[in-house]
UniProtKB/TrEMBL annotation:
<dbReference type="InterPro" id="IPR035911">
    <property type="entry name" value="MurE/MurF_N"/>
</dbReference>
<dbReference type="GO" id="GO:0005524">
    <property type="term" value="F:ATP binding"/>
</dbReference>
<comment type="function">
    <text>Catalyzes the addition of meso-diaminopimelic acid to the nucleotide precursor UDP-N-acetylmuramoyl-L-alanyl-D-glutamate (UMAG) in the biosynthesis of bacterial cell-wall peptidoglycan.</text>
</comment>
<keyword id="KW-0131">Cell cycle</keyword>
<feature type="short sequence motif" description="Meso-diaminopimelate recognition motif">
    <location>
        <begin position="402"/>
        <end position="405"/>
    </location>
</feature>
<dbReference type="GO" id="GO:0000287">
    <property type="term" value="F:magnesium ion binding"/>
</dbReference>
<feature type="domain" description="Mur ligase C-terminal">
    <location>
        <begin position="327"/>
        <end position="457"/>
    </location>
</feature>
<protein>
    <recommendedName>
        <fullName>UDP-N-acetylmuramoyl-L-alanyl-D-glutamate--2,6-diaminopimelate ligase</fullName>
        <ecNumber>6.3.2.13</ecNumber>
    </recommendedName>
</protein>
<dbReference type="InterPro" id="IPR004101">
    <property type="entry name" value="Mur_ligase_C"/>
</dbReference>
<feature type="domain" description="Mur ligase N-terminal catalytic">
    <location>
        <begin position="22"/>
        <end position="97"/>
    </location>
</feature>
<keyword id="KW-0133">Cell shape</keyword>
<keyword id="KW-0067">ATP-binding</keyword>
<feature type="binding site">
    <location>
        <begin position="402"/>
        <end position="405"/>
    </location>
    <ligand>
        <name>meso-2,6-diaminopimelate</name>
    </ligand>
</feature>
<dbReference type="Pfam" id="PF01225">
    <property type="entry name" value="Mur_ligase"/>
</dbReference>
<keyword id="KW-0963">Cytoplasm</keyword>
<feature type="modified residue" description="N6-carboxylysine">
    <location>
        <position position="220"/>
    </location>
</feature>
<keyword id="KW-0547">Nucleotide-binding</keyword>
Amino acid sequence: MKLDELLNRIPVSEIIGDKNQEISEMTFDSRQAVEQGLYVAIKGTVSDGHDFINSAIEKGAKVIVCENIPTDIKDEITYIKVKDAAKTLGHVASNFYGNPSSKLHLIGITGTNGKTSTTTLLFDIFKMLGFKCALISTVEYRIDEEVIPSTHTTPDVIRLNQILAKAVSKGCEYAFMEVSSHGIHQQRTEGLQFKIAGFTNITHDHLDYHKTFEEYLKTKKRFFDDLSSDAVAITNVDDKNGNIMLQNTKASKKTYALKTMSDFHGKITEVDFNGMLLNFNGKEFWTTLTGKFNAYNLLLAYAVAIECGFHEDDILPTISKLKRVKGRFETLKSDGGIFFVVDYAHTPDALENVLDSINEIRTKNERLITVFGCGGDRDKTKRPEMGKIATKKSTLAIITSDNPRSEDPAQIIKDIEAGVEPQFYSKYTSIPDRREAIKMAIKFAEPKDIIVVAGKGHETYQEINGVKHHFDDQETIIELARLMSK
């Protein structure tokens, strides 16, 4: 693509060199620079891309986009000065790939919990309605039938445009995307044109990155602030911060809730481990998904589908056919009659939602055993909170390792134990080895008891000291339950 086409509608402070360069590829990582390529120098949290301009040139880059033009200007290189390189990257990437987000219905879902479930449910709903769709989620990226392993909840903006461009070329009409707070803060969604933005909830998470809850909240809000007047913003008004998302948006405003007056109102009529009888805007239907948090996810998916122009008579029967999302309240029963729930819950709110949902369903004759941990190198402030919740709401809590990463698992467990209230000291034990913790839970359980294994959900690995070891909660449960029933 010609450089002048690439810079279309992008504010530029200064250009030094040939404006008619032909661009073969673009990158913001100097190690990936190629012959006749364009390199964007971004000031990151760890390093400054300006320090690697010469490295990119050595690899063949002919155009440099930067906030500060270097003193050693090289012949045959075009330097483009911009005010904000990270922001510019998004618009350049969109232009380079033909602005794919404008050629399909791009729906973004943000919030602490429920992003993966809601985007996956939407992908499944629209697929069942006969549309080709794309999915960009924590679990996987999908372009119609093609599955691509996921690397980040929100990929970098070049990768995002590559995926969306491929989706357009394959005939996709809709794309459903998780929008993380990291992605918003690092401007990975810059230049994308969202048709609908949905907000699930906001609770305690990522404070290792955002430092304060106020900063985390502001970052989420920015996603809605940046929407165009052609977009629709849908927020959960049962969440006390739900309305904050709509304060400065130019988009049309819609609300959903189970408890509060809203445009899309839901009610749980019946609930058990096999599913729920729900009522959305006066229409009743059955779903095999269960738990209040799933009622919220389905209600948001329903609201998005209605805002896309579909009739509830088409949407509700389709929702009734949905299956559970991998690693989200997945249930299985052992031959010995023990009931298991595997869930990705790794924040205080998510864990509380899962345990509350089970406590609403169970008759109290069954015991509830919770196996959980917290990830290393992540927000430490949520650890005691999760210890408090698990011990308060379970018959027995077994604290174990999640993904310790570079941290000492024993220290993570101590941080969790610090939140346990004195009256619940007798209700927990700590077993650092996750497999042994699950084994202990099965050993303790009797027929009809419920074991929740939380924190990893769909993940098939455990990261210890930078190495990923194979570990699948569901696989481990099936294996141990079989061995221990002999």
